[in-house]
Amino acid sequence: MDAAERLMAERGITGVSLNEINTAAGQRNTAALHYHFGGRDGLLRAILRRHGPWLRARHEELYARATAGGRTPDVRGLVEVIVLPPAEYVGLGPSQRAAIRIWTSALAQPALAIEDVHTLVDPSLTRAGRELVEILSRGMPRRLAVERLVVASQSVLHVLADRALAEDAPDSRRRPLPLPLVARNLVDMTVAALTAPVGAATRQEMEQTAGLA
Known about the structure:
The protein has eleven helices and no strands. By secondary structure, it is mainly alpha-helical.
């Protein structure tokens, strides 16, 4: 798993062969990976399960805070549920940074069905996303609200994957902002992106798109 985690983070989940993972792990038995994990998909899920408990607990903690006292969460509180845990995870070490890069690579796979995505996402994260869509749908068509949330979430993950890469680059000459500031700025940017007014040209395009307006 350590070898697969490192190689998948470096090359993407489909950019490394199972034989390369076996070799990097010092396994002479070429069937060991299939025996233990059932193949690439099983190995990927095992890696994500390794990191799941910390992220799940942090998502749940932030969601509980956003809904404390039975109050209805606002956009910022729900965005924090989505953004802060992976941003904080980047700062915990190389293995955690590899997981964020692998997660980003996994969710970008065109062949990943929506059912598969649900198995990779924590329940509290799913609830936060649904509630965000409900809030945003008050001022725009639901499909547009969903599109904004998907694009914003993917953008956050790609930013964090790039930061994870930079953190582990030995020859980096960049002087990035401190990670806690990056995380808070990402929250601000995501809130702004999600709640930006729908422009006149966008509304016109929606009117010309059947079933969206």
